[in-house]
Amino acid sequence: MTSKEIPKSVAPTIMAFPGDGDSYTECHYQAMRNQGAHIVNGIFSVRWLIKNLQGVDFVHFHWPSFSYRHVSRVHSAVRFMRLCFLFMLAKSYGASIIWTAHNLYPHDRNSWPVLDVFARRILTRLATHVFAHGPSAARIVATEFPATRGKLTEIWHGHWIDYYKHGCSRQAAKAKFNIPNDAYVYAFIGVCKYYKNLHELIPTFQSMPGTAWLIITGRFQDTAYQRQIENLVAEKPDRIRFVAGYVPDDDLQYYFAASDIVVMPYLEILTSGSAMLALSFGRPVVAPRRGFLKDVIVPNVGLLYDTGDKNGFRTAMADAQAPRFDEAEILKHVRQYDWDSSARTVINVLKKHS
Fold it and tell me: Where does the pLDDT of residue 5 fall: very low under 50, low under 70, confident under 90, or very high at 90 and above?
């Protein structure tokens, strides 16, 4: 996962959409800056772009759907056309378009879903380089988008060790949630969306014998889904701690410290920042055997289950309680996925083909 470092004097200028406001992009672009790249935080404004595209080598997209998604189909269509115009504007200034494929299609589909398909098809044809996190994700991207073949490069998703506060003891964290110190604790931590499959997690946990606990925390964007989850919890609330709402960065340590394992029964997944976050706190994960997870979750850091097995998730949750995971081993494993190595790979690819 290392490559020869290039001279800083020849590193590219990259306009990023987005460049900040997200822990992935903040770490990724800081690593790019460490390699000498000049990063410009992009703004979706024609006037701003006309003033700032001069001298930009690459325009880098991560989640392009954010720029056109809207509850109104009319507004979505207008914003989509603006995005297409911005693609062409960048090309007219001599900038190459690149994309990091965090997912195949947006998890939150547009009110006019066909736009998500069109956006991906256009982007993958216009892009000169596409990056995917690991070989399994890269194969999936190449299969879904044949236009990416020949311009697809594997990089790794970096870890977040030392990025978030991590000083709370397990005993203090469990006490904070009024959970017995000797209890085994499953945790779900993150944005609570339908594809995260909380509606299967909760009844699965409730059907399991024993004295384990479950913590669920995160914000909901869909009030109907939040009510559904609240109703499921209310049916059998014993040994469940449910905290809906945004979790401040400094408070993440309490949830991870209180947990023994992080559960992620996702219905769809290509790349998982949540898995990298759990590993960065030294916590193993239970997750489906899909995409990026197949490459990163090895037996000593978690359990993967086959989604075709209707009992796979429940069996994996039960098996997780066997004493097999060591925090030091998990941290050692995840440290190999560092941002600087990925940044070097990206910059070398860009310079080689610019």
Answer: very low
